[in-house]
Structure formats: C-alpha cells, structure tokens
Design brief:
- Belongs to the short-chain dehydrogenases/reductases (SDR) family.
- Pfam families: adh_short.
- It comes from Taibaiella soli.
- One of its GO terms (molecular function) is oxidoreductase activity.
- With about 270 residues, the protein is α/β, with parallel strands linked by helices.
- The protein has a single domain, classed as 3-Layer(aba) Sandwich (Rossmann fold), CATH 3.40.50.720.
- It is about 50% helix and about 15% strand.
- The strands form two sheets. A seven-stranded parallel beta sheet has the order 3-2-1-4-6-7-9, with helices on both faces.
- Helix 4 links the parallel strand 6 and strand 7.
- The longest helix is centred in the middle third of the chain and has 28 residues.
- It is globular and about 55 Å long.
- The structure holds NADP nicotinamide-adenine-dinucleotide phosphate (NAP).
C-alpha cells in the first residue's frame, strides 16, 4: 500500500515542491494550504488531496487532519513546513506581529502534532518532520530575534517530544535549511522598518540588502531540501537533525567551535 504524507504550507516553496515530489514518487499526499481555491498545480495529481488549513486555527487543523485520515486511512509522515518570518527591530515590531510569528512557526506545529498524536499512537508509529532553519540553532542575522525565537522554540519542542513519543514509536526529525531559491519566503515576510526611530537604520539597511541579494547568493535549490526530506520519510536517513546548505553548516561549525562571546562578535561583525 502506498504511504501517505501530510504537508502544511503547500501553496509555494518547499511545501509545494515536496508535495509534487512525493506525489510523483509513489506517495499519497494530503496537501494543506490556507487558500485551496487558488491552487492550480497540485489539483492535477490524482494522488493528491487538498485541504484548507491555517496552522494557527485549531478547529481547521482538527478538521483537516480528520478528513485526511478518513480519505487515506493512514498517515505515515507529517511535514510541518508552514512558516513565515517577522524581521526588524523588536522595539519597532507590532504587538500582533510578535504573536503571529510565534503562532505560525511554533504554535502551528504544536496544533498539528497534537491533532495527529491519537492517530500515530493507534498506528503504533509515525514520523513528524519539522522544518526549522539554521536560525533555529544559530543566531545569524541582526533584527532576526523574533524568527530566531520561533524556530528555537520549534527545536526545543522537537527535542523535548523525542523522549515523550519514543515509547510510542513516533519519530521526530528536524531539518535546518539555510535558505534556498524557489520560494516566496522573502516576499511573505513582515519587515518592521517604517518608524520615526532611525537608530536601527544601519542594521535594517544591511539586512534588507542581504534579503534583496539572497536568491542570487544561495547555492541550494529547493529540490536539495526536498531530497533530504524524502531520505528521512523513506528512512534512508535516520538523522534527528539535518543542516542543509553551506551557510547553515558554516554557522553551525562556528557556533560549535567558538566560545559564545566570540561567536556573537564574529556574526555581528559580518553585518555592520
Ligand atoms: N526560504 C528560506 O530562506 C528559509 C530558510 C530557513 C527556513 N525556512 C523555512 O522553510 C519553511 C518553508 O518556507 P519556504 O522557504 O518554502 O517559503 P514560502 O514559499 O513562503 O512558503 C511558506 C508556506 O507557508 C505557508 N503559511 C504561512 N503562514 C501560514 C499559516 N498561518 N498556515 C498555513 N500555512 C501558512 C505559506 O502559505 P500562504 O501562501 O498561504 O502564505 C506557504 O505555503 C518555513 O517553515 C520557513 O520558515 C525558509
């Protein structure tokens, strides 16, 4: 019997590329997104079913999970991919954007995981693959503290759940990508710069410039990340944590080899 993967955030980027890859490689796919009415590509696949799902909406999560289980019978892997970035100085951030950052990137996976636990326990197994970032294990850019907070939270959640879910044969995996081409991440981000406070301008400008150039600088393609996810889902790799990409691996090795004070000074020197 074909295996089934449930994916959040399949309207673009990594989520959509993963949905297509799994659909083309013998899996059934429960593809979830906030606006299914706009989807034209994934609707072409017979083995893909699309469900409306905003990860911050608990009743929508419960409905989508129940419907997918009803349609496919068994879900083998859940890819918690949906995410977005709130960037800019903490002092300038709107209250609702602070809450939203946590709601989407940390509370969202919590909502999805909780909805799947009864199913996975009754199946005596399952796998959650949580899409983190190199910003979940390293602090790498100025004015990224809220995004860092959300992905560090996802990392802590995933490590903590490892122990809790081991007795039920439920596997947890984390991927930390360093960014890739082929997604809408930069377009979807919230960036706080409009303010009378000019003190943060040098850092804001440096970060804006970095994001403007990000797609020309990145060597990784979204498919490189999809292949890592496929290796995990197919159990060709059993790594708990996979760091993907040159920049992420470079920062990780700095983080692991330098005393924290030296790491922080090194990274801050890269931008201003
Ligand atoms: N691109 C990078 O540089 C980078 C680096 C490290 C980690 N990541 C992580 O990789 C994951 C995928 O991002 P991406 O690069 O593929 O960017 P992307 O193209 O912007 O994809 C993000 C997806 O998440 C969805 N989403 C956002 N808020 C949602 C919500 N409340 N409920 C459900 N879905 C929601 C978006 O849907 P809508 O179309 O409805 O907004 C979109 O489908 C994210 O978790 C991101 O944090 C990205």
């Amino acid at each position: 019997m074909n295996k089934t993967i449930f994916i959040t955030g399949t309207s673009s980027g990594l989520g959509k590329a993963s949905a297509k890859y799994f659909a083309e490689n013998g899996w059934n796919v429960a593809a979830t997104m906030r606006s299914p009415e706009k989807e034209t590509e994934l609707t072409q696949y017979q083995n893909v079913k699309i469900y409306k799902l905003d990860v911050t909406n608990i009743s929508q999560v419960k409905t989508a999970v129940a419907d997918a289980i009803k349609d496919f019978g068994k879900i083998d892997v859940v890819l918690n991919n949906a995410g977005m970035g709130v960037y800019g100085a903490l002092e300038l951030a709107k209250e609702e954007d602070i809450d939203w950052q946590f709601a989407v990137n940390a509370r969202g996976p919590i909502n999805v995981i909780r909805a799947f636990l009864p199913h996975f326990r009754s199946n005596n197994g399952g796998m959650f693959i949580n899409v983190s970032s190199f910003m979940g294990i390293t602090t790498a850019v100025p004015l990224g503290s809220l995004y860092n907070m959300s992905k560090f939270a996802l990392e802590g959640l995933t490590e903590g759940l490892y122990y809790e879910l081991k007795p039920f044969n439920i596997d947890l995996r984390l991927i930390e990508q360093g960014g890739s081409s082929g997604n809408n991440f930069v377009n979807n981000m919230v960036f706080h710069t409009d303010s009378d406070i000019k003190a943060y301008d040098p850092q804001s400008n440096a970060l804006k410039q970095m994001f403007e150039n990000v797609h020309t600088q990145l060597k990784e393609d979204t498919m490189d990340i999809v292949c890592v996810i496929a290796d995990l889902a197919e159990r060709r790799s059993n790594k708990f944590r996979t760091v993907i990409g040159e920049s992420g691996n470079h920062l990780m090795s700095l983080r692991q080899s330098l005393p924290i004070e030296e790491y922080l000074e090194t990274v801050s020197g890269m931008f201003v």
